[in-house]
Write a structure and sequence with these properties.
Number of strands: 5
CATH class: Alpha Beta
CATH topology: Rossmann fold
CATH architecture: 3-Layer(aba) Sandwich
Structural class: alpha/beta
Largest sheet: 5 strands, parallel
Helix content: 40-55%
Shape: globular
Distance between the termini: 12 Å
Order of helices and strands: EHEEHHEHHEHH
Bound molecules: flavin mononucleotide
Number of domains: 1
Length: 157
């Protein structure tokens, strides 16, 4: 099975998770940054996984536009989605349903909550300030390798 992992990142977590997921998948996989390749050619792939971060409740615009534009093509392939986010898993389903069409989510073979990271050194001043204010007093998030592992298994099952 040939899989395209199409991701968006701002501070590296979703990129790191995409690479780790690619390493865990048994079949052939390609990791594609949607910011660098805005309209990836999906014709050579049996499966597509979309991965992104959440910021102020939203995914990267390019990712939601990609899913919307390719809904029909994606339907013909094995689909999966993962999120990198600072909030806990109980917010995961809500973030998914607010950002992606139901017809895409209903067809996803695997949906991954991969946790998140605060990579302050890669953030601009404003983002850093917002993050510090929003996360004050809360535990630091971390990405969850075991969830990536489980996602890979569920996806290829
Ligand atoms: C300005 C800003 C806003 C954020 N807003 C949210 C949010 O609304 N919900 C959430 O769960 N995480 C939020 N996060 C945390 C990110 O989703 C988390 O840091 C993630 O790992 C970033 O992924 P990336 O490194 O691939 O960009 C926010 C982070 C920043 C910097």
């Amino acid at each position: 099975m040939k899989t395209a992992i199409i991701y968006a990142t701002r501070s590296g977590t979703a990129e790191n998770c995409s690479q780790k997921l690619s390493d865990m998948l048994a079949g052939e996989s390609t990791v594609i940054n949607i910011k660098k390749v805005s309209s990836p050619d999906l014709s050579g792939y049996d499966a597509v996984i979309v991965g992104t971060f959440i910021r102020i409740g939203k995914v990267q615009k390019e990712i939601s536009e990609f899913v919307q534009k390719n809904l029909k093509t994606l339907k013909e392939k094995r689909q999966g989605v993962f999120l990198c986010m600072g909030a806990r898993e109980e917010n995961f389903s809500e973030h998914l349903s607010r950002n992606f069409p139901k017809e895409f989510l209903d067809k996803c073979k695997a949906k991954g909550f991969f946790g998140g990271e605060f990579n302050l050194e890669r953030l601009g001043f404003l983002s850093k300030m917002m993050l510090k204010a929003a996360s004050k007093g809360k535990p630091q998030p971390h990405f969850i390798p075991s969830n990536i592992d489980r996602f890979a298994k569920d996806f290829e099952d």
